[in-house]
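User: Before I run my own analysis I want an independent prediction to cross-check against. Here's the chain; please return only the structure tokens and, at the end, one sentence I can use as a sanity check.
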Amino acid sequence: MKDRIIFHIDVNSAYLSWESVSLLAKDPDAIDLRTIPSAVGGDQSKRHGIILAKSESAKQFGVQTGEPLVDALRKCPTLTIVPPHHDLYEEYSRSFHQILRQYTPIVEKMSVDEAFCDMTASIQPGQESVLLACEIKDRILRELGFSVNIGVAPNKILAKMASDFQKPNRVHTLFYDEVPVKLWPLPVRDLYFVGNATEKKLATLGIHTIGELAHADLTILRSHLKKQGEMIYAYANGIDDSPVSAEAHRYKGYGNSTTISFDVEDAFTAKQIIRSLCETVGARLRQDQVVAGVVTIEIKNQDFITCSHQRTLSFPTNSTNQIYDIAASLFDEIWDGSPIRLLGVRTGKITEEENLQMNLFDWEKQEKQNKLDLAIDQIRNKYGENSIMRASFLEEDRFHHMTGKKKKGLAK
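Assistant: Structure tokens:
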């Protein structure tokens, strides 16, 4: 059977690249943000502002994605910060994915700036996959103005790992015969799906490199990490049979929103409402035994200006806590401090609950969280939704703990 040829295409510093391309299109003499210490981030006057993307030179100062702007500026006082423009990112993302679909119909959009492409049937006889990857990379740079990394491999996990090798504007291969040389010497934390908690557990087992994980005793891994142990053992050995899927699932997205009867002007209150919305969204997902791979936050201010921001998850989930954590993070990234009149949380990329085995969080904690969520659902189904609520809502008298809507009987 012919090996598959999978490309993983990832835009280099997407938000920053797209800001740079846009500025240069307006003024060819403008400074290219990619060549100086720079970052895309929130309003410096707001305490919630964080770094969304950074240049390579900013990275050399220790600036990290997701850290507060004040911390980034402490590391690099000359850091140039530009505000995010999410409509612009969606526009460049569409153009990026349109080019990919000209090479193969099997494109799985992972986020605005990355995708998997199954190129198996698109490679012509005698055509080299690396040459085709270089053609795509160079075309994106030529026509759209930004660079990408492309990983070429026989499956998704190896393609993803390959695209993370040296950046920017590179094509890397990771075929089966290259795994011992290119993959196994890397620290185990570099393996996709190995987080900090898992790295620490593996260290207690004397496993520090991907190669050591690949040659570990699977029985021991199962006993300490359960199903996650099986998964990362397979990935360390380059095993991944998951398909590149371009088909939309039959389920629609699950979401909830509320128009607020008072202006919300602080993050704490906004996040309490977001948490209440996530309660309903998570319960609906679990009721239908499905999980979500995308979380979106929507904000409408007092001037009826709406903005939204989404994130594609590495692992699908139906956990209320996980959906809330992501939604709260997205809120921090886009809220400009304007008084809020509407908040919404939506989920998408819905799949069957069996995909819950791939999750961002520590495996044991996730199993406990799943049991807790199901127990809460059962209590609410039997005794009513007000029979159990989070402690943070006990003294909240403005909105309902499950819907975010104004409680009955309250004056506007």
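Sanity check: The chain is about 40% helix and 20% strand.
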